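Sanity check record (used in CI):
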Amino acid sequence: MFPTVSHFLEYLFGIQVPLPFNTFGVFVALAFIAGYWAFTHEFKRKEALGILHPIKKTMTIGKPATTTELAYNGVFGFLIGYKLVYALLNYQLFVSDAQTVLLSLKGNILGGLFFAGLFAYWDYKEKNAHKLPKPKTVEVTQHPYELMGTLIVWAAIWGFLGAKIFDNLEHWDSFVKDPIGSLLSFSGLTFYGGLICGGAAVLYIARKNNIKVLHMLDIGGPGMMLAYSVGRIGCHMSGDGDWGIANLNAKPISWLPDWLWAYTYPNNVANEGNPIAGCVGRFCNELPQPVYPTPIYEVIVCFILFLILWKIRDRIKSPGMMFGIYLMLNGLERFFIELIRVNTKYNVAGIHFTQAELISSILFLSGLGLVLYSYKNKEKLANY
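Expected output for Prolipoprotein diacylglyceryl transferase family protein:
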């Protein structure tokens, strides 16, 4: 396994390059990039079809930087400099434990003050360069795809919060033992928490910009499936604990790689299992028994599902149907992968289930209902 990018580079090229990048985090970033690409294409396609429309906005240009703007930039610059300079001066600690460096209160005051002044001065000079003797109000055209920067930021912030909240609810005993550590840890993220909270934030921004809910949902279906597939690569490569149950069965196909059938996740970032003999460092554990590598199964299945959604998107005309199909496929995929995946089981009235099984069932039924609603009301929704 490759808990950090440095481990991956060492495996590929045999060289040690100390980099403070967690493999899982890198693939989360790549997942957002993949989603950005798919969302943008769908925004442009639907605008070309006349389904979405650009909107007119007014803005005032030529104003000098206000005190409030300078203060905001100064505070932002201070936070950047406070952590960045401290990380550079303590680079080995940053490489070995970036999470502690970023989430602790430790930092460099002089670095923070320097960057605070730099950011405030930058904003002042930028606004001053475009200052007019008399500020004026102009009308600008904003295309729907130009919202993607704002949507990505909101989805990332609220998606992360939702993923942490749902994960801590699922692992309540661990949360009670160390609530601060559980909330601040970058590991332990629940996909459905991110989907629900991040999705709600995206819909809020879209609605504020006159994009109707069903159209925004349809735009998001293929992109979210692709992003999930890419993100799961990070889960597998880092060994973050999203693996399956023990698999001691013989390989059904002789040429199938061992890591695709049963894997022990050596050097996993979750630090679970038994110590590896001769290994030195933070990530030196390996599972005692091989397990189903469920993250890589989801990578493959969800990428195929993305290709299906991408292929049929031109043929679906009724608003809401695309997202309904996405919910059904997502629910089915996650429900069946849960059958061979390690997870917390709940017991209600003698029925055993996981959080993901419950939510995936709800999503499937919701998707089915949305498909039926869209189909029955396609004439009514024609001018939606």
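The two ends are 49 Å apart (CA to CA). If this sentence no longer matches the regenerated tokens, the check is flagged for review.
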